[in-house]
Amino acid sequence: MAFELPALPYALDALAPHISQETLEFHYGKHHQTYVTNLNNLTAGTDHEGATLDDVIMAADGGLFNNAAQVWNHTFYWNSMKPGGGGAPSGEVADRVNAAFGSYDGFATKFAEAATTQFGSGWAWLVDAGSGLEIMKTGNADLPMKHGAKALLTIDVWEHAYYIDFRNARPNYIKTYLEHLLNWDFVAANLD
Ligand code: MN
């Protein structure tokens, strides 16, 4: 069965005014869709046809890896945000964040620093590295599962993620994500 573009977990206009419908029309409807189309073209008639997305990611390199990982990364990114999100977590997630970073502010500072300083295209992540929560950043399509860490949360810092709404101001996009969009429910689900 061919790989499919997963449905967005909310409406195209649900993240506005922070992330516009226009951004999601391009980012989800064009960029994410193109990675799915490329992945299907690259796997058709090969040993990877019918494999799981995770198996392709772990086995592949080059263009096949890039497209498979970008399919995974974008699905994970949509779920890392929700309307009315952002701010500090509560419950067990808060305990884990405080244990690793001292406080929510400690987490937010390190996460924003990683997202801001990822040079060029890539991703910043909150991960479970086995010994506790950590911040990670990766270039282009790279992702935590290739480094033995479990992803809990991500932000896309490719320019296509923010250029329509924030132009070149990546730090404003990161601040908006942290204050209005970050989905701690998704982090809690990934920790279970
Ligand atoms: Mn993207």
Describe the structure.
- With 192 residues, this protein is mostly helical.
- The protein folds into 2 domains: 21-79, Helix Hairpins (Orthogonal Bundle), CATH 1.10.287; 91-191, 3-Layer(bab) Sandwich (minor pseudopilin epsh fold), CATH 3.55.40.
- The protein is built from 8 helices and 3 strands, in the order H-H-H-H-H-E-E-E-H-H-H.
- It has helices spanning 21-43, 53-59, 62-79, 91-101, 104-117, 163-166, 170-181, 184-191, and strands at 122-128, 133-139, 150-156.
- A 3-stranded antiparallel beta sheet has the order 2-1-3.
- A hairpin with a 4-residue loop joins strand 1 and strand 2.
- The longest helix is centred in the N-terminal third of the chain and has 23 residues, at 21-43.
- The radius of gyration is 16 Å and the shape is globular.
- The protein starts with 20 loop residues before the first helix and ends with a helix.
- The mean pLDDT is 97.
DSSP strand content = 5-15%
What's the pLDDT, averaged over the residues?
A: 97
Please provide the count of β strands. 3
> What is the global morphology?
globular
- Main sheet: strands, sense, barrel: 3 strands, antiparallel
Q: What's the CATH superfamily of the largest domain, by name? A: Iron/manganese superoxide dismutase, C-terminal domain
Count the helices. How many? 8
Oligomer: single chain
| CATH class descriptor name of the largest domain | Alpha Beta
SSE topology string: HHHHHEEEHHH
Q: Name the bound molecules.
A: manganese (II) ion
In whole angstroms, the N-to-C terminal distance is 29 Å
Radius of gyration (CA) equals 16 Å
Strand order of the largest sheet: 2-1-3
What is the CATH topology of the largest domain?
A: minor pseudopilin epsh fold
What is the structural class?
A: mainly alpha
Q: From the 3D coordinates, which CATH architecture of the largest domain would you assign?
A: 3-Layer(bab) Sandwich
**Helix coverage percent of residues?**
40-55%
- The total domain count is 2
